[in-house]
Amino acid sequence: MIVAVVLALAAALANAVNLMTQHLASVSAPAGTSGVRLARYLIRSPMWLLGAAAGAGTYILQAGALHNGPLSLVQPLLVTEMIFVMVLRRVWIHQYVRPAAWASVLTVAGALAVFLAAAEPTGGQPAPEAAEWLTAGVVIGGIIAGLTLLGLHGSPIRRAGVLAAAAGMTWAMEAVFLKTATETLSVSGPVAMFTGWPVYAFAAATVTGTILQQAALHVGPLSLSQPLLAIVDPLTAIVLSVWLFGERFSGSPADTAIAIAAFAVMAVGVTALTRTAPQTLSPDEGRPLPPPAQP
Questions:
Q1: Is residue 277's pLDDT more than 60?
Q2: For residue range 127-154, what is the model confidence (pLDDT) as tens digits?
Q3: Cα 55 to Cα 35: distance, rounded to the nearest angstrom
Q4: What percent of the chain has pLDDT over 70?
Q5: Rounded to whole angstroms, what are the CA distances from 76 to 7, 9, 237, 239, 254?
Q6: Mean pLDDT, residues 110-116 taken together
Q7: What is the 3-state secondary structure of 218-229?
Q8: Rounded to two decimals, what is the model's pTM?
Q9: How many other C-beta atoms lie within 10 A of the C-beta of residue 9?
Q10: At what angle do helices 46-68 and 2-27 cross, to 10 degrees?
Q11: What is the Cα–Cα distance from 223 to 156, expressed in whole angstroms?
Q12: Bridge partners of 93?
C-alpha cells in the first residue's frame, strides 16, 4: 500500500511538471508562431521535451501505483497534482501566490488525508469479470456519450460543465483499462498484454479524454471545468473500484460519513483553489501593490 501511495504521488508530481514545462515552452514561443512552425519550435525546446518525458513518466508511475494498490486509493491521490502545480509556481518561477490559494491547498490536502484515512480502501480482485466489463462499459460509456451530446449545444457554461464531466469519467475509465493492462503484463507478459483489448481501450480512452478535456477548456470558464475534471475522475473511479474490482471501504457508518464529508470538503477546496490560483504564469500577478510613498 505504501508503494502505491508513493508512486501515485510521484505520478501527480510528474504530471504537474508536465503541465508547467509544456505551458512555459508554449508561452515562450516567438510572437506570431503557430501551426507547423509552433510544433517545430516546441519539439526542439528542451523545456517542452522535459514536459513530454514527465508526461510519459506519469503513465508509468500511475501504472505502477494501480498495480500495487486499489483504484479507489490511487485516483483520489492524483488530485495532489493541483497542489504540486501551486508549489512549482512558487518555488520554480517565483510566482506570487495569494494566501487564499495556500488556504485552499491546505484544505485539499487535509480533506484528502481524512478521506483516505476514514475510507480505508482495500482489497479487490485483480481483473473484472466479463459481465462486469459489459455492464460498466454500457452504463459509463452511455453516460459519457450522453454528456458529450449535451455539450455540443447550449450556453458556454453548460457545455463546459457537461464536457468536463464526460472527460473526468473518461479519465476514470482510462485508469481502469491501465490497471487491467498492467495486471496482464505482470502476469502473462507483453505479448498477452498487446494481444488483449484493455491496452487498446486505454489508448482510445486517452485520446477521447484529451479531446473532451480540451473541448471543455475551450468552450467555457476554467473555474468551472477544472474542478469538475479534478473531482469527477476520482468519484467515478471510486464507483468503478467497487463495481469492477470489488474493492472495500471501512464498514463503520461513522467512518463512511466522515469519508463522504471529507470528499465534499475536498471538492470545495479544489473549486476554491481553481478560483484563487494565479491565472497566468506572470510572477507578479496578483501581488499586492506597495503602499504609496508618504509625502
A1: yes
A2: 888 888 999 999 999 999 999 999 999 8
A3: 22
A4: 93
A5: 13, 10, 8, 12, 20
A6: 96
A7: HHCCHHHHHHHH
A8: 0.88
A9: 19
A10: 160
A11: 12
A12: none
Output Rg (C-alpha) for the chain, integer angstroms: 20
End-to-end CA distance of the chain: 63
Burial class (CB in 10 A: 0-12, 13-18, 19+), 118: buried
Under a CB-based contact definition with an 8 Å cutoff, are residues 47 and 21 in contact? Answer: yes
Q: Which residues of 258-273 are buried (b: 16+ CB within 10 A; e: fewer)?
A: bbeebbebbbbbbbbb
Q: Cα–chain-centroid distance for residue 85?
A: 12
Buried b (16+ CB within 10 A) or exposed e, 126-136: ebbeeebbeeb
Q: Write out pLDDT tens, residues 207-265.
A: 999 999 888 888 877 778 889 999 999 999 999 999 999 888 877 889 999 999 999 99
CA torsion angle for 247, 136, 203, 221 (degrees, to 10)? -90
Task: Compute the C-alpha angle 42/45/47, nearest 5°.
Answer: 110
